[in-house]
Amino acid sequence: MSVTWKDSITEIAGTKMHLSRAGSGKTVLVLHHDIGTLDRLPFYDSLAEQFDVLVPHHPGWGKSERPAWLRHPRDMAAMHTWLLADLGVEDVNLVGLGFGGWIAAEMISQSPRGYRRAALVGAMGIKPPEGDIFDQAIVSYLDYPQVGFHSRDEFHRVYGQVDTDQLEKWDICREMCFRTAWKPYMYSQTLPHLLGGVRTPALIIWGDDDQIVPISAGHAYTKALRNATMTTIAECGHFAEMERPAAVAKHVTDFINAA
Amino acid sequence: MHMMYFTEQPMSAYDAEEGLKFGATALTFSNSHYDSVAGSRLYNEYLEDYLLAEEAGADGIMLNEHHNAPFCMQAKTNIFAAILAAMTNRVKIVILGNPLPLCDNPIRMAEELAMIDMISKGRLVPGFVRGGGQEQLASGVNPAFNRERFIEAHELIQKIWTQPGPFRFEGTHYQHRVVNPWALPLQKPYPRVWVPGVLSKETIIWTAQQRYPYIALNTAIDHTKEIFKLYSQTAAECGYVAGPENFGYLIRVHVQDTEEKALANARQFMWMQGEFTGLAHPVWANPSGYFSPSGRRGFVEFATGRAKNPRGAMTFEEQLESTMIVAGTPKQVIEKLKYIVENTRPGIMGIWANDGSVSAVDRKRCIELLFKEVVPEVKEFGAKLGLKDPWEANAPVHLRYSTDLTTQKAAAE
Description:
The complex is a heterodimer. Chain A is of the alpha/beta class. Chain A has one domain (6-257): Alpha/Beta hydrolase fold, catalytic domain (Rossmann fold). Chain A contains ten helices and eight strands. Chain A has helices at residues 42-48, 73-87, 99-110, 143-147, 152-159, 164-181, 191-194, 215-224, 240-243, 245-257; strands at 6-12, 15-22, 27-31, 52-56, 93-97, 117-121, 202-207, 228-233. In chain A, β5, α3 and β6 (117-121) form a beta-alpha-beta unit. In chain A, α2 (73-87) packs across α3. The longest helix of chain A has 18 residues, at 164-181. Chain A is globular and about 40 Å long. In chain A, 50% of the residues are buried. By secondary structure, chain B is α/β, with parallel strands linked by helices. Chain B has a domain at 195-268 and 316-413: TIM Barrel (Alpha-Beta Barrel), CATH 3.20.20.30. Helix content of chain B is 42%, strand content 15%. Chain B has helices at 16-22, 36-56, 77-87, 106-119, 133-139, 146-162, 201-210, 221-238, 259-266, 282-285, 296-303, 316-321, 330-344, 360-384, 409-412; strands at 2-7, 60-63, 92-99, 124-129, 167-170, 175-179, 195-197, 214-217, 247-255, 325-328, 348-354. In chain B, α3 (77-87) packs parallel to α4, α4 (106-119) crosses α6 and α7 crosses α8 (221-238). Chain B is globular, with a radius of gyration of 20 Å. Chain A binds chain B through residues 137-142, 164, 167-168, 170-172, 174-175, 177-179, 182-183, and chain B through 27-28, 137, 140, 142-145, 281-284, 287-289, 296-297, 299-301, 303-304, 306.
């Protein structure tokens, strides 16, 4: 089944935000990784076969403008919430990928009954009880995404021979990570305390070889949320939806379709 | 001309093989290789060298700071500045510079500098820098806001030194509700601020807009001329004419009684495998957001091994040829320095004289020959060319104190 994507620009908080949208049915907001996102991914297509899928670029990432004042993923959570309000969508399901998982967690913590379901995949945002979130600042633009794949072959299948344009995009993504999540690096000290009130059912998905966010953070999310279950994907790194698109899509689709 | 002595204060007593084995001699190169006994000895030896430089006739001692690396032992430049304030009598104490963005409390910085200025009886030149990329990582400071923090910290320090407290400062990166430090500089309106740099056009333009002297750090002659040209253009836009008092030039010079010995010791300028700051991953020197967006494309290519270092990687011989390193007997060095001075016309010169593991005896001999034999001749030559330093030219400390502006536009901004 072919999926037709439409791109649009919406102004949120004085910032032109890029949005790709496809499919119909239940609304699913997908929040991308710290390294941005390719325009199209098999994972997005799989979701769009069943759902109304929204893939915005975070403010400052990809084709969305950079708000100079932006300082924290919580700001981005507010902007994405604003975007949903402007789009007039209800009963939204969230899929947060890595860094986007942090933003999704902020969204559900601020609106404990506001979302239908939330899937967090290798989510950043809370301090792993064991291990540390991998510091991209001390490795190259090419090495960091590769660390996030269990298999180098899978990285090349997704990104091919990485050109300089892509390297520049990753540098801009990294700059935005620094502008919004420099210290503490890639987590919030307050978020874990705010997750307990969330009524939204959550699915915590983790690659079993996630070298970027230790799996202990996944267990911590599962414990902090009152209605969460966790599943792992074998031979899979941090960028799970790119490395194992079919497996992640099945987990997410089944979860959203349940109940 | 103002001619000052500089050394990086190399931590030469570490096992270079360990650095090569690890593949880096900066940031993450383990401090388990640090020898505090040798560190104690070297700090005291370098202090002796500074005292000798004053005795031999240097106009100033230039200081700096770096972190997590053997190429420079000074982790806090204000400490050596404070020591020199008490132990020297005549030389200017030139800090090039304090990395302002690393500072979370600019009030404390203003206090420390005011104390040094008073203890030294008004001999402080408190230069400011953005700090290298690695310094941000070593200090946990956000590189993406480096320039904003630099400008804002400077604004606060300048305000502390020129407006009576108490006042409140509500900036983007610094917020202080009671600003009223009970220590102010002796020099009025405030000590002369100099700004050193290598690459960044934005810094050159900002420095010219302040009318602070810009010190080019060991750039090639052609590049140095380009820097001064950009500074002069900006100065013209601000309504003043830039002269030698606005320009400084740091170069590496080593003098000995014989050319052979001078050349052998000058090779120590390459001791960090040709990189000033040691072997390091490119992204450490240029973390995302630290550098100008216009340089982004070139740097990502370099950082992934697809392009050559935009700063270049010249051999020792090439650097000798291009006069980026000068070495020889006093007579030989005088001739080369005259050539450099004539071609770049700085009012301020930093002489980076000793590096690596040059022996204490040779360091001292170099300092004596430099400031007793070489520098007097170069200064005399510079005087004939009309090269005045900021004091000789009675230059305003900042643009706002100018009385010669042809346009008030920039000053009013």
